[in-house]
Amino acid sequence: MDLPSASSQGGDEFVGSKRVIKKVELVRVITEVLYSLGYDTVGKSLERESGIHLHAERVHLLIEQIIAGKWDESLATVRDIGKSVDKISLLILKFKFSELISKGELERALKTLQKEISPLSNSDEIVREASSLIIFPPQNLLGQEPNPRSRTEVLKELRKLFPPEVMVPDKRLVDLVEQAIEFQKGACKYHNSFVREVSLITNHQCGRNEVPSITLKKLYGLWSKIKLLKFSHDGEYLAAVSPTDPYVNIWKVEAIDSLKWKGDLFDRQAPVTNITWSPDNTQLLTCSSHEAVRRWSIPSCGCLHTYKKEGVGMVSCEWAPDGQSIFTGVNDDSIVMWNLEGREIRCWTWNKTTMEADMAITGDGTEVITTCNQDRILLFNWERDTSRFITENGSTIVSFCLSEDSKYLLLSLLNQELHLWCIEVPPKLVKVYKAHRPPSYSVRACFCGPRQMFIASGSVDRQVYIWDRETEGLIGTLAGHTKTVNCVSCHPVDPYMLVSGSDDNSIRIWGKINGDEEFRPNYATRILR
Q1: HEC states along 220-273?
Q2: What is the pLDDT of residues 112-164, one digit of tens each?
């Protein structure tokens, strides 16, 4: 069979400076998308004027025969075309059989099944289904006229079976344009938006201001250094922790540059070292250094329950994904699971955590993640009581952060590097992010941006660093703090909002628009508990 050709109209010509796009193929995909969009008259006009046909003559004949329900003629045409004959014949015969059943011509349907369908390869499943229709024909189908729509379904299936040089795949030009757009977005160094409409008229390129780059707010208070910052999962609240202050400070985030003082959670026992938000964002767990874990109500800022064990102290905490239980790391190297009322459900001992540890739980709730040695991460399946490990071979792990999809773990190391691990079986180091930063035991990193495509970290050199997650390239640094930046946190909903906490006793809110205002909480509303 001759494929579509237009040698007399320059079929060997190329379009574009790169000389990789064949003119014939370009015209064919344009014609196909015109028909798919319903512009049949324009499509026919393009075929006539260019002399380049969407389909070869025999393929065009096949399409007409199928639309007309001329099944026997279409089978002869398929054999004449000579491409994927058995598969396409089986598809056509399946629809022929269905129409015969619908018209009540059971004898002809049986003959089609026995003489035409059964001899074809890979027809066993269709033969079983068709045989049951012969024996028990659906009453709701009998006596119905053939539906032209069902015949167009045959054509859609045909496109999947014929090689692309015979029948252009459905909406091929649209697919190519979408691929080009995704490539440009992926190559865009600063791409950071959920809603940006990418134009077909111009090449896509975000500017530097598409990532957080300017201080919008500076928050000061009675606290000292800022060690830890965490947004609630819905981004409605921001919590801040100081290593020497017994308060956890809470703000309500009303806009990217508008925060309203909510209150504070006062723990008389010891400074708070770890915090984690409940799945429904209405409660917060706080872990006091080697003392107890407390569960707080955010609406009232009141303590709901205290979790502690005689003779030992807590070092970390995390919510189960269903919000019905919590896990705590204990300074005797164990992990404890509690119900919300404070009853110990289970306890796992022996080298399960370290004296100072982060903790995370995978989205399915099966694996607890914590540091179990200075250079080792434990991934503990508490349901099966099995353990997996990530080892950094002598590099001290400062902190870690779990990705939203629970597939990746970002480790901050004392050697100035950030390591991204894929934690599917087996764990694998996939990315390394480097910068000229002095080592520190306090600096934390996080995922940020839409689809968590950026990596952000504080630094001893008073700057915030931002990397491209995929390329590992340093996008830029944010300057403004006057002392070590200990922590960063990205807003889970607004990809332009990033906060950082520093030893200079301030919190900075970074964004993409101008602004440099100070926000001071009203401590007159503070209630000591």
Answers
A1: ECCCCCCCEEEECCCCCEEEEECCCCCEEEEEEEEECCEEEEEEEEECCCCCEE
A2: 888 888 888 877 887 887 787 776 666 555 555 556 567 888 888 888 888 88
| Greatest pairwise CA separation for the chain in angstroms | 92
DSSP element (H, E) containing 328: strand 325-330
Q: How far is CA 15 from CA 10, 31, 400, in A?
A: 11, 16, 51
User: 46 is written with which tokens?
Assistant: 């393009």
User: Please, are residues 276 and 261 in contact by the beta-carbon 8 Å criterion?
Assistant: no
For the chain, give the percent of residues with pLDDT over 70: 89
Both tokens assigned to 321: 């994904």
- Please provide residue 449's backbone torsions phi and psi, each rounded to the nearest 5 degrees: 80, 170
C-alpha to C-alpha distances, 128 to 123, 124, 411, nearest whole angstrom: 9, 6, 56
Whole-number CA gyration radius for the chain: 32
For residues 510 and 466, what is the distance between their CA atoms, to the nearest angstrom?
Answer: 12
Cα–Cα distance list, 145 to 112, 130, 204, 356 (Å): 19, 19, 51, 75
DSSP string, 110-179: HHHIIIIITTSTT-HHHHHHHHHHHHS--TTTTTPPPPHHHHHHHHHHHHHHS-TTTSPPTTHHHHHHHH
pLDDT at 523: 35
Q: Which residues in 17-49 are b (16+ Cβ under 10 Å) and which e?
A: eeeeeebbbbbbbbbbbbbeeeeeeebeebbee
Cα–Cα distances in Å, from 252 out to 96, 368, 529? 65, 30, 21
Residues in the chain: 529
Contact predicate 74/92, CB 8 Å: yes
- For residue 136, what pLDDT is reported? 67
Tens digits of per-residue pLDDT, 514-529?
A: 544 444 444 333 332 2
Distances from the Cα of 151 to the Cα of 37, 41, 468, angstroms:
19, 21, 49
Measure the CA–CA gap between 13 and 24, rounded to whole angstroms.
8
Answer yes or no: are the C-beta atoms of 151 and 74 closer than 8 Å.
Answer: no
Per-residue exposure over 81-115, b if at least 16 CB sit within 10 Å of its own CB, e if not: beebeebbbbbbbbbbbbbbbbbeeeeebbebbee
Q: Average pLDDT for residues 480-506, to the nearest whole number? A: 92
CA separation for the pair 292, 240 (Å, rounded): 18
Query: How many whole angstroms separate alpha carbon 392 and alpha carbon 403?
Result: 19
